[in-house]
C-alpha cells in the first residue's frame, strides 16, 4: 500500500495515511485517460453554433448578369459563397457532440488519474481543513504553508461554505467535492490537495 504523509494546515507532518492499492496504485492507462478526457470535454460543448447556407441567406434571386458576352466570370446568384453576404459553404448547424464512455472505463480512468498524482508526488493529504473565517487570506496562508503556489485542486468530502468562500476568489484554485470529482480536473491541476475524510470517501466510492 502506498503511504503519504498526513499534514496539518501549517504544513507540518502529523502522521501517515495508507492508500488503497486498488485506487491509488494502479498502472496508469494513458489510452483510457485520453478517451475519458476527450469525452468529458466534448460533453461540455453546447453545440448551438449555426450559420446560413446559400439556400438560407436572403436575396440573390436574379442572375446578376447574362451568361456570355460581359467578359466577366459567369454567375448565377449574388448569394453564392464567393460573394460578400453570400452563404457559408459547409455551414455549421446545431448538433450534439455527446460521447458515451462505459462505466468501467470511467472508473479505470479515475483510478489512473489518482494513481498518477501519487506517482508524481502531487497528492497532499490534510488531517482536516478548518479555517477561522471565510476569508481569502486564510486560504492563501494555508496554501503557502503547503508550498502550493501553482494550480491547486482542493477536494473536500462534503459541502463546506467557509472553505468554499475562502477559496473562490483565488484564480489558481478550484474546489470540488468527492461527488463532483472528475478526471479532467485531476490531470489539469498541478497539486491535488484533499482532506483525510475526502480520501477515505474516495476509497469508499471507487472500491
Report on this structure:
It is a single chain. The radius of gyration is 27 Å and the shape is elongated. The mean pLDDT is 94. The protein folds into two domains: 3-45 and 99-205, Ribosomal Protein L4, Chain: A (3-Layer(aba) Sandwich), CATH 3.40.1370.10; 47-96, no CATH class. It has seven helices and six strands, in the order ββαααβαβαβαβα. It has a six-stranded mixed β-sheet with strand order 2-1-3-6-4-5. The chain has helices at 21-24, 30-44, 103-119, 136-145, 161-167, 183-188, 196-205, and strands spanning 3-7, 13-18, 123-126, 152-156, 173-177, 191-195. α2 (30-44) packs across α3 (103-119) and α4 (136-145) packs across α5 (161-167). Residues 43-56 have a biased composition (Polar residues). Belongs to the universal ribosomal protein uL4 family. Pfam families: Ribosomal_L4. This is Large ribosomal subunit protein uL4.
Radius of gyration: 27 Å
Structure summary, number of beta strands: 6
Tell me the distance between the termini.
14 Å
Tell me the series of helices and strands, N- to C-terminal. EEHHHEHEHEHEH
Strand order of the largest sheet: 2-1-3-6-4-5
The number of helices is: 7
CATH topology of the largest domain: Ribosomal Protein L4, Chain: A
CATH architectural label of the largest domain: 3-Layer(aba) Sandwich
| Helix vs. strand class | alpha/beta
Indicate the percent of residues in helices.
25-40%
Strand content: 5-15%
Describe the main β-sheet briefly. 6 strands, mixed
Task: Estimate nothing, just give the exact number of structural domains.
Answer: 2
Shape: elongated
CATH homologous superfamily classification of the largest domain: Ribosomal protein L4/L1
Top CATH class of the largest domain: Alpha Beta
Low-confidence stretches: none
Overall mean pLDDT stands at 94
Subunit structure: Part of the 50S ribosomal subunit.
Pfam families: Ribosomal_L4
InterPro entries: Ribosomal_uL4 (IPR002136), Ribosomal_uL4-like (IPR013005), Ribosomal_uL4_dom_sf (IPR023574)
Family: Belongs to the universal ribosomal protein uL4 family.
